[in-house]
Amino acid sequence: MAALRLQSAVIGAIMLREIHTRFGRHNLGYVWLFIEPMILAFCIAGLHKISGHGMPGGVDPLAFYIVGYTPYYLFRSILNRAAGALQANAPLFYHRQVSFIDVLIARNLLDVGAVLFALIVMLAGNGVVTGEWPDDPVWLAIGVMLIAAFCHGVSLLIVAATAWGVETVERVVHPLTYLMIPLTGAFIAVWWFPAEVQEIALLNPSIHMFEIIREGQFGVAVPHHYSWGYVLASIAIANVMGLIAMRAGRRHIALQ
Amino acid sequence: MLELRNLCKFYDTHGAERAVLRDVNATFWKGDAVGILGRNGAGKSTLIRILAGIESPSSGQVIRGMSVSWPLGFGGAVHGSITGADNARFIARIYGKPTGWVESFVEEFAELGEYYRMPVKTYSAGMSSRLAFGLSMAIDFDCYLVDEVIAVGDARFTERCRIALEERRRRSTLLLVSHQAGILRSFCTTAAILNQGTLTFHEDMDQALATYEAL
Q1: What's the pLDDT score for residue A27?
Q2: Angle between helices B84-94 and B125-138 (to 10 degrees)
């Protein structure tokens, strides 16, 4: 119990520190959190408007891209920043009570908090302007947290892999997160595809999570395909594998 | 009490294992003030990092019967992109001390003036070590691990460190790494020499310094 209290105090302190270093007192790092998904959502929604083609099922394109890109931003942010996470925080490990995993938990919690906040602001703005409000905001938020939980497990695997060198891992992870754009399910809905393709698409855990998010936004207006069992199992597997890899890799990670 | 049992540490250098510490056994008690001498690359900092628990030994055990500080060295535990005051609050939070108290204690101890509210990366080496030392003095440890840090301060700061450590002498242990005979004489009562992976203790400081110089 005391250990748990200490760990949450440590994680809280790291989060406060991260807010200072990342969002800073003088830089506007957090503004990009809003601007980037909004540029994409507005541009693509604008193209739909100009071309006169609506989205399949007649869903609101602006909302579709907001609930697609913003969680994808979280996905990419957690995975891309994982490899450098320990180097950036090397001074913290001078304190015995701060573990590698504490730093990752703090950073990922901060990421999911920031992204949820950005998402709420954008969807509320969209609701006021277009009258398209999320069907179930809590459901939508749960979907975002599932993505964070899954990515947390993967980020442990990435950090463990930095035992082979941070640069090597970053060179592999960064292109992969871009190649993953069409595959994550951020911009495709499962029901668009024939049954055989759906089956293959649903092998990817993140598609299930994006489907849950879209269900939170659009409700039953269009069909959504996901399996809770598959989602929870993949989160559990990613995290258990991550913890095992961290245990094995921890000693071999060289920090200055 | 802080005890090392059959401690070994190996590093991989170009595929070959190099022993930095070979079967080190030692016990440090409350009130001990031990100077650790060793040539560059002898493994002094590795030993300190293992004692602090931020690096794990290849084999053997560290038994900590008392609270041990983080290694006080150049920067190290302080974060460069945030201010000295932010660092103080961070340390207070993770060690469960009142943030306001630690912040003002360190401000007074380190005497950084307006730099206290500037990012640490703008500090000089002397200022960083004053901050680092002030931070560790704000937390009451039973054992302080000091890696050269005192050496970069000016005379006034060295004196301040000496008084601060002297005050804690009866209830604290001090392990100090330094090459400077003067500093070792004023802070430590005994010394140990780390050479080729073995740690040899000397009760007499003069004898220790003479042995070290003959290496």
Answers
A1: 60
A2: 30
From the candidates B79, B120, B136, B147, which should be mutated to test the interface with A, based on the most A CB atoms within 10 A? Answer: B79
Cα–Cα distance measured from residue B169 to residue B188, given in angstroms and rounded to the nearest whole number: 10
Type and span of the H or E element at B198: strand B198-202
Q: Which residues of A40-77 are buried (b: 16+ CB within 10 A; e: fewer)?
A: bbeebbeebeeeeeebeeebbbbbbbbbbbbbbbbbbb
The closest CB to that of B82, out of A10, A12, A20, belongs to: A20
Residue of chain A whose alpha carbon sits nearest to that of B80: A91
Residues of A in Cβ contact (< 8 Å) with B52: 94, 96
Q: What CA–CA distance (Å, rounded) separates A212 from A143?
A: 5
Measured between beta carbons, the chain B residues lying within 8 angstroms of A17 are 79, 82, 86, 90
User: For B22-46, b where at least 16 C-beta lie within 10 A, e where not — what string?
Assistant: eebebebeeebbbbbbbeeebbbbb
Binary contact (B86, A6; C-beta < 8 A): no
- CA-angle at B157, arms to A21 and B150, nearest 5°: 75
The DSSP letter of residue B15 is T
Question: Any CB–CB contact under 8 A between B40 and chain A?
Answer: no
ipTM higher than threshold 0.85? no
Let me know: does A55 contact A124? Beta carbons within 8 Å: no
- B121 in contact with A, Cβ within 8 Å: no
pLDDT for A115 equals: 87
A227 vs A208: CA distance, rounded Å: 7
pLDDT computed for residue B132 by the predictor: 86
Of A231, A100, A82, the closest CA to residue A157 belongs to A82
Q: Which residues, given as ranges, of chain A have pLDDT below 50?
A: none
Report CA-CA distances (Å) from B199 to A205, B26, B47. 54, 8, 10
In angstroms, the CA B198 to CA A8 distance is: 40
> What is residue B74's predicted lDDT score, i.e. its pLDDT?
59
What values do phi and psi take at B32, rounded to 5?
-70, 140
State the smallest CA–CA distance between residue B92 and chain A in angstroms.
Answer: 9
Q: Quick one: DSSP state of residue B17?
A: E
Written as tens digits, the pLDDT of chain B (215 aa) is 888 888 888 887 777 788 888 888 889 988 888 999 888 888 888 888 888 888 888 888 899 888 898 888 756 788 888 899 999 999 999 998 999 999 999 999 888 999 999 988 899 888 888 888 889 889 888 898 888 766 666 788 878 888 887 787 778 888 988 877 888 888 888 889 888 888 888 888 888 888 888 87
